[in-house]
Amino acid sequence: MKIIILAGGGGTRLFPLSRDCYPKQFLHVIGDKSLLAQTIERFLGLVEAKDIIIVTNERYIFQVQAELKTINAQEAHIITEPMGKNTAPAIALAQSYCQDVLQCDDDEILFVSPSDHLIKPIDAFQDLIRNAQDVVKDNIVTLGIKPTKPEIGYGYIEAEKNNNLAKKVISFKEKPDLVTAKEYIASGNYYWNGGMFMFSIATMQAELTKYMPVIVTQNGYQYTVDNFENMPDISIDYAVAEKSQKMMMIPMENIYWNDIGSFDAIAEVLSDEDKNVFKGDILAENCTDTMIIGDNRLIAGIDLENLMIIDTPDALLVAKKGESQKVKNIVNKLKQNKRKEAKENVTMYRSWGKYTLLTESEGYRVRKIEMDPGASLTMQMHYHRSEHWTVISGTGKTIINDRESIFTENQSTYIPMGVKHKLSNPGKIPLIIIEVQSGKYINEDDIVIFE
Q1: Phi, psi torsion values for 252, nearest 5 degrees
Q2: d(C-alpha 173, C-alpha 156), whole Å
Q3: Looking at residue 226, what is its pLDDT?
Q4: What is the dihedral of CA 388, 393, 399, 400, to 10 degrees?
Q5: Mean pLDDT per 10-residue run, the chain (451 residues)?
Q6: Hey, which of 220, 243, 339, 449 has its CA 20 to 30 A from 48?
Q7: How many CB atoms lie within 10 A of CB 230?
Q8: Which of 401, 347, 353 is CA-nearest to residue 376?
Q9: Which three-class secondary structure string do you get for the chain?
Q10: Sign of the CA dihedral with 330 first, then 333, 339, and 343 last
């Protein structure tokens, strides 16, 4: 069995924690590890890391690589999409990769999972997947979550009423209104759609050929990175699941599931006996039913009730509890106004490591740069800014106007405007430096690459 983890989404419902460049699968909101890392670990033991394929947008490859390192799962495969095309193209691309690169047979079973959900306990979830393999055969199996409330934010699966492990799917339902959701709950045979599917390569290829032929040809999948932009933007639900006569559903009994799709969902997981969530350096006095998530600075709250306060270095969100679905409206306005906060995060990942914006104003910018061992920047030059680097930890090597030198902790170097320069980390530990940029024009497009 191969595990396909879909990690290309750029959700907006957890702004300002998540951004277009840093979506929720990389957030550390539940526990010390990212949601992606927790998802990968959920399948380790069921399969080896080399049997996991992660499909992500090419913008996120460095974040994915960093997360794999944190859990020692570097053998997992990464496929990058040049653009988001929804789940059907992503699944087809992964299936094609399994056939062409991993040399999987047509009867190989694939299990598809989102990358940003919370599921526990892990042992029970793994046992359910093992049991599901026995009923896949020529079917497509989806896992249904038994609803605990009339939720209007999820899609639903209508299944036959019986005591079998796998139940025939009658229909898939869109996100309902509250009245309809209550009717679903009362009927007893409706389940939340968690976006998880299991199938053989042969079965999915046959169903795609039948219901979405643009994706396949007589010789197999058309999907490659080169022609990916020509593929339809469609979910696997619309492309196959809602049309197929081979859909079966297995309920996730006695297993907790949460899609962490909103701040209210986070509150459900983390709330204490007073319905409070305090994460960060928080000092609260007489607060109830309140969420405060901070970063580095102290946040004090007094006599607060029914509030969400989400603080990041460059943006602050204050909202009523229960209204977190409206966060996406704020993000849409930011995008309309072309505000960088919608896309950029203070920490950005690169092939050589990452950098964090500490402060900036007119004429200067200060960043913390963390460079991996053996990594290097390109030889480059800036016309409108100078740079001053001070080493906090590790050893750096610089080439400035063809002159090579080494600088270590508490040492610094200065790069004037218009001077060719290069930074690398020849050491065995991360290189951490504080970079001060100064000049009349400080933007990322002021760069000339010589390599």
Answers
A1: -90, 85
A2: 5
A3: 59
A4: 20
A5: 91 86 90 94 95 94 92 95 88 91 94 96 95 91 93 91 90 92 92 95 93 69 62 91 95 92 91 93 95 92 95 92 88 91 86 92 95 94 96 96 93 95 95 96 91 77
A6: 220
A7: 11
A8: 353
A9: CEEEEECCCCCCCCCCCCECCECHHHCCCCCCCCHHHHHHHHHECCECHHHEEEEEEHHHHHHHHHHHHHCCCCCCEEEEECCCCCHHHHHHHHHHHHHHCCCCCCCCEEEEEECCCEEECHHHHHHHHHHHHHHHCCCEEEEEECCCCCCCCCCEEEECCCCCCCEEEEEEECCCCHHHHHHHHHHCCEEEEEEEEEEEHHHHHHHHHHHCHHHEECCEECCCCCCHHHCCCCCHHHHHHCCCCCEEEEECCCCEEECCCCHHHHHHHHCCCCCCEEECCEEEECCEEEEEECCCCCEEEECCEEEEEEECCCCEEEEECCCHHHHHHHHHHHHHCCCHHHCCCCEEEECCEEEEEEEEECCEEEEEEEECCCCECCCEECCCCEEEEEEEECCEEEEECCEEEEECCCCEEEECCCCCEEEECCCCCCEEEEEEEECCCCCCCCCEECC
A10: positive
Q: From CA 273, how far away is CA 268, in angstroms rounded?
A: 11
Q: What is the identity of the amino acid at 16?
A: P
pLDDT, residue 220, reads 46
Q: Do residues 19 and 317 lie in contact, with contact meaning Cβ atoms separated by under 8 Å? A: no
CA distance 322 to 198: 34
Amino acid at 169: V
The whole-number pLDDT of residue 229 equals 76
Per-residue tokens: 380: 């480059």
Torsion of CA 361, 365, 370, 371, to 10 degrees: 150
Give me 37's structure tokens: 């890392």
**pLDDT number for residue 224:** 55
Rounded Cα gap, residues 399 and 379, in angstroms: 8
Alpha carbon of 142 to those of 83, 176, 195, 207, 339: distances in Å? 26, 20, 8, 15, 39
Those residues with Cβ within 8 angstroms of residue 217's Cβ, 6 or more apart along the chain or in another chain: none
Determine the Cα–Cα distance for residues 41 and 71; give it in Å rounded to an integer: 8
